[in-house]
């Protein structure tokens, strides 16, 4: 899943080397924390959050076979 998020986000940003995905796994959920360069935040979030919503939709669909809830957070 980490590779999927990186594959989606890296072409969108100006600093692909700064893209990091950290995983926090708990008993009933998995949280993917996406970190990008400060100037790339707008590109990843998009107008009215459309790009972020699209990323979350793809990740949720890919992880639907897992028994855990999946969350994607975007941080600096």
UniProtKB/TrEMBL annotation:
Per its UniProt record, what Gene3D superfamilies does this chain match? 3.30.300.20
Entry's localization field: Cytoplasm
Q: Which PROSITE patterns match?
A: KH_TYPE_1
What InterPro entries does this protein map onto? KH_dom-like_a/b, KH_sf_prok-type, KhpA
- At the top level, the lineage of the source is Bacteria
Keywords from the UniProt entry: Cell shape, Cell wall biogenesis/degradation, Chaperone, Cytoplasm, RNA-binding
Pfam families registered for this protein in UniProt: KH_KhpA-B
Q: Which HAMAP family match?
A: KhpA (MF_00088)
Instruction: State the similarity comment.
Output: Belongs to the KhpA RNA-binding protein family.
Role of this protein: A probable RNA chaperone. Forms a complex with KhpB which binds to cellular RNA and controls its expression. Plays a role in peptidoglycan (PG) homeostasis and cell length regulation.
Quaternary organization: Forms a complex with KhpB.
Please state what the protein is called: RNA-binding protein KhpA
Q: Which organism is it from?
A: Cytobacillus spartinae
- Taxonomy of the source species: Bacteria, Bacillati, Bacillota, Bacilli, Bacillales
Which gene holds the coding sequence for this protein? Answer: khpA
